[in-house]
Amino acid sequence: MKRLFLSLLALSAVAGRAQPSFSGPVPPLTVVNNAADRRAAYHARIAEVLTWRANVVKSTEPEKVGLADIVGKLALRQDAALCSARLIELMKTPSGDMFWMFPVTCISYLGRDQLTPEAKAAVREAWRTYMPLRGDTENHWAMYYTSLYLMAQLWPNEPGERWFTGKSSTENFQEAREYLIHWMGLTTTIGQGEYDCTEYLGEYTIPMLFLASWAEDSVIRQRGRMMLEYVLADFAVETLNGTYIGSHARTTDVAVLEKWNCLASSLAWLFFGNTPPVAGYSWGLYVAAAARNFDLPEVIYRIAVDRSANYTHYEKKRTRHRWRNSDVRNAPVYKTTYLTRDYAIGSDQGGLLQPIQQHSWDVTWALDDPRGKQNTLFSLQAHYGTHELMMYFTEMPDYMPASVTFQGKPSYISDGKLLGGSPHEQLFQQDDCVIQLTDVPAGETFEHINGFFSKDLTRLEEDASGWLFAQGGRAYIAYRPLSAYEWRPIDGGGKRLRSAARQNGTVVQVASAAEFKSWDDFKATIRALPLEMKTAPKPGVTFTTLRGRKLECTYGAAPRVDGRTIDYAKEWKLFKGPYLNAEPGSGTLTMTHGKLKRVLDFNTLTITDAVLP
């Protein structure tokens, strides 16, 4: 440990003189084969994050030191006296609920041998007098219960009057332990609820890393490590050069357009080293604070960076808990993702799978530098309403739609919204083709489709055939609306396709420019593909794709491929593809890449590695 700390100090000295990676050159898209070189680069990135954060404010400006700054300094074992004095002040006015709990937990463990007794006492008193809310989402509970577990471990054998919960250390510890084991079991058998989130990925990696680092119980420590690997493998397989692609349970109005601009990119940079981090490294700081306790398995690293061929990846997730307006508490979510070197396209089956921030499908094209670029194309049926909010939230309905816009979701009730799910939308994906169908009842607040066409497309042409042809990077994209449309400008550039018909839809086919002799050859090939469309009595499409698959999709009916009816419930696994495989209900995940094989078994809490012949 001493040698590791000295190495980190040496790396931090270098990092302190270097240009931050979020403003520096793009990392090369090369595979680092030597394990020692990979680990050294990983530790250099850790040191860079911590050093940058520790230097954000100066010792001469103690009033500007916040919890994040204290984390950076304690992780580097710097300015312990300043950290202690400032922590005492900050503990007088705690706020932030579980978003306060996990930074303070991190500080408490990093500072066990650095903070003064007075600072530790101030923290202890805050955990008695301040009552953080537990929240109502999966990520909230992961942070809340991980923090409660670790702090009850830090302060054992104390009575209920010493805790904001009114429960003893033992009771808090047991409640947290039981929930964490329950959540891990749920995730590894029927899927995660807040799946594949561009921002909330951090709220799962941070707690699991904290458990893997600081849980004294070997069972929970092993569970933390295994779940961290599970979450990172799930992330790695759906990245394109480090950018999170496809459908997400939750994303933001920024990241839905600028796919790279989210916390997930900072984590891809930290663990995989293949994309720039976002400015300031975001909450990657709290990962970096404990990251030297964890080495990414080589098989996950290679899944993220070492791609030899195009592939299709399938996942089964679940909705968040539904409190009302549903007979099913956790409905299944069926995801399909197709990845190549030049582009990726991913989707779910459509429907109202998450509240407010659902993103159901998109095309993302590869760029040499994704920073500041909107390298994506997608469409959605614009929808909002109290039915959705009451399904997933417990508040009263009267004020919810309006109040959502004041809670960091500014586009929720906007006609031009580009984020959200709809109960009137159905999707199907085969390879690199997506068919979107909508059937909106009369009288809905919104009845139209919004399509996003980026300012960073290098081509966009309206063809007499009805197809729209676009190019982004090295990806050729064909987009066919089922009904008439008009163009609306987007603030900041780009266009919004607005199609007002209630019975409506879209056909999207993507290909690599390298597959065709020319742009005109691509357009001619698309025009020649058999396509039949209807909007009444229900919207429907019969289309033969570039890959020779005949798709038959009608709203309200199961899709058909080459005459075979698709049965999601029977065909979709928890994970299925060349890299990740898991049966529903199994509690296991098999990760493979080339000859590498690693199995996480949550039934026996074992990790098994093998080298295939």
Distance between the termini: 36 Å
Radius of gyration from the alpha-carbon trace, in angstroms: 25 Å
Q: Choose one word for the global shape.
A: globular
- Strand percentage lies at 15-25%
Runs with pLDDT <50, length 5+? 1-10
Q: Count all strands and give the number.
A: 26
How does this model look, in words?
With about 625 residues, this protein is an alpha+beta fold. It has a domain at about 320-560. It has 17 helices and 26 strands. The strands form five sheets. The chain has a nine-stranded antiparallel sheet, with no helix packed on it. The protein has a six-stranded antiparallel sheet with strand order 8-9-16-13-12-11, with helices on one face. Strand 12 (about 470) and strand 13 (about 475-480) form a beta hairpin. Helix 7 packs parallel to helix 9.
Question: Summary?
Answer:
With 613 residues, the protein is of the alpha+beta class. 33% of the residues lie in helices and 21% in strands.
Highlighted features:
alpha+beta, six-stranded antiparallel β-sheet, globular, disordered N terminus, 613 residues, nine-stranded antiparallel β-sheet
